[in-house]
Fold this protein.
Amino acid sequence: QVQLVESGGGLVQAGGSLRLSCAASGSIFSINAMGWYRQAPGKQRELVAAITSGGNTDYADSVKGRFTISRDNALKTVYLQMNSLKPEDTAVYYCNMNIRRTYYGKWNDYWGQGTQVTVSS
């Protein structure tokens, strides 16, 4: 069993900062890419940021220069530092990891339960 547990969401004023964390636990052999997605009410889930096992990053245009994704492989954790937050960043944020549970196993995507981020104007 693999579990992703997120933390760090909350309510913040526009211009403020939050740091999200997502830790994986369970039977894990290797983790490939990690990422953060978000879903606002009435909208589709969208990719916010991603980071490869080698540390290469990619960001949605709407968050470039404000958000930073990072990872700690030893802790099996991915982080999202969010600065200069805007009301339009309000959404439920989900972490995602591409995980292989055994040496010969397949790569599968796992999701966290989601954490609410609310930015007030």
